[in-house]
Design a protein that fits this description.
Blueprint lengths: L1 E4 L12 E3 L2 H11 L2 E3 L2 H32 L3 E6 L6 E6 L1 H10 L9 E3 L5 E3 L1 E10 L2 E11 L2
Length: 150
C-alpha cells in the first residue's frame, strides 16, 4: 500500500514522503490516526505541486539549519548542578537541562532533538558528547561538561 505521510513518522519517513507500507499498518493505524493519506494518482499530483512550491522555503530552512550547525558544532558548554562529595549528581541530568543551557547561550533548540550519546540520564560529573538534530539529517555535535555548583 502506497501512502503519503502528513507528518514525520519515526523510522518511516518525513512529511510528504511517499512510502510503501503493509496494508494493515496503513489502513488500521497511519490513516485513521491522521498520519497519512492514500497515494492516489490525484493526491500524487497535488503533492508534486505542493512540493514544487515549497522547494524554495525548504532551501532557506536547510541553509539556516546548516548555519546553526556550523555555529554549534564542536562547542563546549558547562552545566552546573548539585553534586555529592563523591561526584554523584543529586537526581540526574537529561536533555531538558541541556536545552536550558543552550537557551541561556542563545540557541533555541527543542529538547526532543537533543540526545546525550550513550546515556539517557547522566548521574555523574564529567564531560559528555551530545548530538543535536537540527533539521532532518543535519546534526551538530557538542560537548557538555557537568560540574558541581559552588
Amino acid at each position: 500500500m502506497e501512502i503519503i505521510l502528513k507528518q514525520e513518522v519515526p523510522n518511516l519517513g518525513h512529511k510528504d514522503d511517499i512510502v510503501t507500507v503493509r496494508n494493515g499498518y496503513g489502513a488500521n493505524y497511519l490513516i485513521p490516526k491522521g498520519y497519512a493519506t492514500m497515494a492516489t494518482p490525484s493526491a500524487k499530483k497535488v503533492l508534486a505541486e505542493n512540493v514544487k512550491q515549497r522547494a524554495h522555503k525548504e532551501a532557506k530552512l536547510r541553509q539556516d539549519a546548516t548555519d546553526l550547525a556550523a555555529r554549534l558544532d564542536g562547542k563546549q558548554f558547562k552545566l552546573a548542578t548539585k553534586v555529592s562529595s563523591t561526584g554523584k549528581i543529586f537526581g540526574s541530568v537529561n536533555n531538558i537541562q541541556v536545552a536550558d543551557v543552550l537557551a541561556a547561550a542563545g540557541f533555541d533548540i527543542d529538547r526532543r532533538n537533543i540526545t546525550i550519546v550513550g546515556e539517557d540520564h547522566v548521574k555523574e560529573v564529567g564531560e559528555y558528547d551530545v548530538v543535536i538534530k537540527i533539521y532532518r539529517e543535519i546534526k551538530a555535535n557538542i560537548k557538555v561538561e557537568i560540574v558541581g555548583e559552588e
